[in-house]
Automatic annotation (TrEMBL):
<protein>
    <recommendedName>
        <fullName>Cytidine deaminase</fullName>
        <ecNumber>3.5.4.5</ecNumber>
    </recommendedName>
</protein>
<dbReference type="InterPro" id="IPR050202">
    <property type="entry name" value="Cyt/Deoxycyt_deaminase"/>
</dbReference>
<dbReference type="InterPro" id="IPR016192">
    <property type="entry name" value="APOBEC/CMP_deaminase_Zn-bd"/>
</dbReference>
<dbReference type="InterPro" id="IPR006262">
    <property type="entry name" value="Cyt_deam_tetra"/>
</dbReference>
<comment type="similarity">
    <text>Belongs to the cytidine and deoxycytidylate deaminase family.</text>
</comment>
<dbReference type="InterPro" id="IPR002125">
    <property type="entry name" value="CMP_dCMP_dom"/>
</dbReference>
<keyword id="KW-0862">Zinc</keyword>
<feature type="domain" description="CMP/dCMP-type deaminase">
    <location>
        <begin position="8"/>
        <end position="130"/>
    </location>
</feature>
<keyword id="KW-0479">Metal-binding</keyword>
<keyword id="KW-0378">Hydrolase</keyword>
<dbReference type="Pfam" id="PF00383">
    <property type="entry name" value="dCMP_cyt_deam_1"/>
</dbReference>
<dbReference type="InterPro" id="IPR016193">
    <property type="entry name" value="Cytidine_deaminase-like"/>
</dbReference>
<comment type="function">
    <text>This enzyme scavenges exogenous and endogenous cytidine and 2'-deoxycytidine for UMP synthesis.</text>
</comment>
<dbReference type="GO" id="GO:0004126">
    <property type="term" value="F:cytidine deaminase activity"/>
</dbReference>
Length: 133
């Protein structure tokens, strides 16, 4: 993992994710998820999952986070955490790791139940813009 320029307040980031999780719309699965991330310009952004009756086209919390990133000026994600309905830290699924790779790159630092990991450690040999001709 790369060294951080400034210390990250993981407790505050996790609390923002828990707050976002409290706003999740998960009436079908009963599995609310919240996420929070820091952006390279110092902003903190959040997201929560939003389900709908057709199940398969629900939005992951990471989708909401990336949408907020774009809507508030873009930038690169630098630090990320994800929590479940009980507020416990969990890791994003493979699809969401790919989404995070697009907007944070291999150096994005993720909080996991086992500690901090870079996205490169969580998604080795990722496919990204560099692979397109």
């Amino acid at each position: 993992m790369t060294a951080d320029a400034a210390p990250v307040d993981w407790d505050a980031l996790r609390e923002a994710a828990r707050d976002a999780m409290s706003r999740a719309y998960a009436p079908y699965s009963g599995y609310p998820v919240g996420v929070a991330a820091l952006v390279d310009d110092g902003r903190m952004i959040t997201g929560c999952n939003v389900e709908n009756a057709s199940y398969g086209i629900g939005l992951c919390a990471e989708c909401g986070l990336v949408s907020q990133l774009a809507a508030t000026g873009g930038g690169r994600l630098t630090h990320f955490t994800c929590v479940d309905g009980a507020g416990a830290v969990l890791v994003p699924c493979g699809r969401c790791r790919q989404l995070l790779y697009e907007f944070g790159g291999p150096g994005l630092v993720l909080e996991t139940p086992e500690g901090l990991r870079t996205l490169d450690e969580m998604l080795p040999q990722a496919f990204g813009p560099q692979n397109l001709g």
